Amino acid sequence: MSKKFIELGDPVTQDEKDYEDYVGVGFAHQVPTMKRRKLTEHGNTTESKEDPEEPKSRDVFVSSQSSDESQEDSAENPEIAKEVSENCENLTETLKISNIESLDNVTERSEHTLDNHKSTEPMEEDVNNKSNIDVAINSDEDDELVLEENNKEMRDGEQVQQDLFADDQELIEYPGIMKDTTTQLDITDSEVETAQKMEMIEETEADSTFVGEDSKNQRQSGTTSDEVDADSQINLATKTVRTSSSSFLSTVSTCEAPAKGRARMYQKELEKHVIAFTEGNLTLQPDLNKVDPDRNYRYCTIPNFPASQGKLREDNRYGPKIVLPQRWREFDSRGRRRDSYFYFKRKLDGYLKCYKTTGYFMFVGLLHNMWEFDPDITYKLPALEMYYKEMSELVGREEVLEKFARVARIAKTAEDILPERIYRLVGDVESATLSHKQCAALVARMFFARPDSPFSFCRILSSDKSICVEKLKFLFTYFDKMSMDPPDGAVSFRLTKMDKDTFNEEWKDKKLRSLPEVEFFDEMLIEDTALCTQVDFANEHLGGGVLNHGSVQEEIRFLMCPEMMVGMLLCEKMKQLEAISIVGAYVFSSYTGYGHTLKWAELQPNHSRQNTNEFRDRFGRLRVETIAIDAILFKGSKLDCQTEQLNKANIIREMKKASIGFMSQGPKFTNIPIVTGWWGCGAFNGDKPLKFIIQVIAAGVADRPLHFCSFGEPELAAKCKKIIERMKQKDVTLGMLFSMINNTGLPHKHFEFYVFDRISTYLSSSEDVESSKSSPSVSRA
Which of 144, 285, 410, 750 has the highest local Cβ count within 10 Å? Predict the structure, then answer.
């Protein structure tokens, strides 16, 4: 049967002709040994009414053109092909010696990026983030629109995930590909020359790397010199404090720059955080020197540290699966051979050999093969097609095809750089630490994961919604960076939990404490910060709707830092007394808008602060923690939601959840802030005053300062500040405040400031304040 294209229009484009030639004689007609599934056609695609004009190619990467020429020459002359193959083998071995974990062995290095071809209109930091704040103010409707979709997708995904790990099925998640070091025909002399030049530049500019990155960001984004000067002061302060805290303070006091806006405001905060980390000799958990290696697994190599040797584990036949399925390996965790292994290996190798000449539909064909779609039907991928057309006009067709190939190359590294076993955070397994490159390999495999996996990118690629095109921009920017200039370091994923009795003991010891220090920031956003704990307003399923249509706070964080998606592979659905900590995630992109108006943006200085290499700890992790805590979803009218939230069991549950997350780093972080905002108050319909008070109590239990970002609601923030000041004047303790919100009573009609009004009533009566000192127990939930 001849292959037919679904809703691709007529007449046939050159790309389609190339693909027809490819599938007629090439790898696409090879049938895998396993039984193929026949899927129905996607119903959400739109028909193309006319043949889209193929964008003209641009000379974006000179080395790409030379590679094409060398491929054509080698195809005509077998002797040249043999010589190229031998040269590629030698080059591959040389690159492996210089950097064993390098992901870009077969990727050209170039200073050109996608952002060089974006609009030259300046994007100032304050303008971008002011836009984010303005949109976020009225984002509740956007949240609600995507919430219903996400909840259904999460429920379906949870059931699918249970099915995937069933004992009577083969573990399904990632197709298996093995790296082939014998035929790397897409390496050219120009790529070798470029790589050598880059190595020389890295050696000569090692002492000025971060300053150079700031200059590059300034040129690309049009950021004002004042903002860059402020970030330069932060960098200078960081380097100085590593030598001496006293010399750091003197340097800062004599280095006044005309910084403006949030850059200047946050500069002082960051200086205090640097001092706290340095003088306190603080290490974010897990401290790999002190934790039990049999529960805290380190899968990457860290200089000057011995190899990690955790105990070998086997899947429990009747419990949750602990070994992460790795379909890129020839054998599964039980030693059984995977029949699909060599089939997928041939597909990926075949694509990388001829992707430059066969076009867009070659990549579509690869995805169809990996997903095991019906070989006689090509299902349309609207989001991918729209991305291809849009980006071809901006950077050229050849560069977009190179972006696709980079994903495939990174996916090929999985078998080489990942261990044979990666354990999920279930049972007594507490944490997993992987390198940035290992994380990239896992995320790249999600591109090729079968559609029935809850961790597949298929739902993004096959959507016809514009938000999914923006998500692809985030993802391909991530893979571009990891291919051409990957950061060196590690990321830790940790499940933090506490049983009910232990928490009750903690509460008894801490309920007599005074309220914590609370600072308010009207313009600063959570993602503007560094050297702190950033709160992720999470779904109980980590990542929420990031792999679907979700585009609110948690999804945006995961798009800015795609390696956070590895946590989705490692973590089960969060339980009531659990939180998930991610330490060291690198930021790859910025954004504008919120919800359905979300847009990708090149990385801005305010978001790149936490990427500073000087902020890395001795394990190579960036000193920033993202703590994921999920709130309760309330439904109904505003009055119904407010009444339900004032139920004592719900107050106790939310207080425990926030406290466990805020206590994740232990007792030594008393000067390191928790940066948060209106947690659970968007699509989850949380009462903002109540959620603010609950987080104040949780920060007090953790004995850490609270930095509260009001997201453009200064009036509400002013009321929060006023109520905190009044309570401090009355010497209100954590236990007294907890008692107040547990005895507010129920409102007769919805009033936004009902909780504050009731607290003010208590504060007006000293008798009520004294009587509330006998705080209730929190053990009822």
Answer: 410
